[in-house]
């Protein structure tokens, strides 16, 4: 991406050590944003999947961008508060928040425990409220901002025939994310804040390659970089432009905006 449409803007991307989050962090930096790379993973040796926030940050800075790494477990309130405070201390503002981190809770109905359910809701839903509480007043002071909540096609009722058993808890959390996004967008539009939920479509990541069979046909799947253009557009929005929508990334520039 050659255009620096986000030049001077400060963007936080959660879950940015790998997968879609890493792709978005790099792509937003290429669009000119100063990026705060956030996730739990700071040490590859302790991670079940490759990638750390330092690796993502190093890739951005090596390419001439600006990024810092801040560890955050979005299921922990103190971590969220600290992430926002450190970002403001470093850059003085926050223009966009990409809520990408998630708990991919899997388990059939018979396997699912109350602890699994609570973890999914704490990480995937409660975190949205906590982040909104912290960033909206900061965005409002500087003329507005954009919150992008990364959802899933699994949130749609019509996805049921395509989902294997074990996804119920996860897709319920994503459906809650979408309804939260559209409801809160209505409340805060007059403060200059845009809130949208985005379904990235089928994206090949470290997690999907681990979960799906080795003989999976990936030919129709996207890469994380394919989601960037849609997010760059959403990052530029404010409460009086494009807000309160649930969109599919693959449909960008065809069915929306």
Task: Explain what this protein looks like in three dimensions.
The structure is a single chain. Strands 3-2-1-4-5-6-7 form a 7-stranded parallel beta sheet, sandwiched between helices. The mean pLDDT is 92. The chain is an alpha/beta fold and 257 residues long. The protein has helices spanning 19-30, 53-62, 77-91, 114-141, 168-188, 206-211, 228-235, and strands at residues 10-14, 34-39, 66-71, 96-99, 145-150, 193-199, 246-248. Helix 3 packs parallel to helix 4 (114-141) and helix 4 (114-141) packs parallel to helix 5. Helix content is 39%, strand content 14%.
Q: How would you sum up this structure in a few lines?
A:
The protein has 257 residues and is α/β, with parallel strands linked by helices. The protein is 39% helix and 14% strand.
What's the arrangement of secondary structure elements?
Elements: E1 10-14, H1 19-30, E2 34-39, H2 53-62, E3 66-71, H3 77-91, E4 96-99, H4 114-141, E5 145-150, H5 168-188, E6 193-199, H6 206-211, H7 228-235, E7 246-248
Parallel strand pairs: 1-2, 1-4, 2-3, 4-5, 5-6, 6-7
Helix pairs in contact: 1-2, 1-7, 3-4, 4-5
Helix content: 25-40%
Number of domains: 1
Supply the CATH class: Alpha Beta
What percentage of the residues does DSSP assign to strands (E)?
5-15%
What is the N-to-C succession of helices and strands? Answer: EHEHEHEHEHEHHE
Q: Which class best fits the helix and strand makeup? A: alpha/beta
Main sheet properties: 7 strands, parallel
């Amino acid at each position: 991406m050659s255009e620096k449409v986000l030049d001077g803007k400060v963007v936080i991307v959660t879950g940015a050590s790998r997968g879609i989050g890493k792709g978005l962090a790099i792509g937003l930096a290429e669009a000119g944003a100063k990026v705060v790379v956030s996730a739990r993973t700071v040490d590859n040796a302790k991670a079940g999947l490759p990638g750390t926030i330092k690796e993502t940050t190093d890739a951005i800075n090596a390419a001439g961008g600006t990024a810092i790494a801040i560890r955050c477990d979005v299921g922990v309130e103190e971590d969220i508060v600290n992430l926002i405070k450190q970002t403001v201390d470093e850059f003085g503002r926050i223009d966009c928040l990409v809520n990408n981190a998630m708990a991919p809770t899997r388990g059939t109905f018979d396997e699912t425990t109350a602890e699994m359910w609570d973890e999914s809701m704490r990480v995937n839903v409660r975190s949205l409220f906590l982040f909104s509480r912290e960033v909206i007043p900061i965005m409002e002071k500087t003329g507005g901002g954009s919150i992008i909540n990364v959802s899933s096609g699994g949130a749609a009722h019509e996805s049921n025939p395509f989902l294997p058993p074990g996804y119920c808890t996860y897709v319920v959390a994503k459906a809650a994310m979408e309804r939260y996004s559209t409801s809160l967008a209505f409340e805060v539009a007059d403060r200059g804040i845009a809130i949208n939920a985005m379904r990235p479509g089928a994206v090949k990541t470290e997690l999907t390659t681990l979960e799906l069979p080795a003989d999976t046909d990936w030919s129709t799947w996207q890469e994380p970089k394919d989601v960037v253009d849609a997010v760059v557009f959403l990052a530029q929005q404010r409460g009086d432009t494009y807000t309160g929508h649930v969109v599919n990334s693959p449909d960008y520039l065809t069915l929306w905006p």
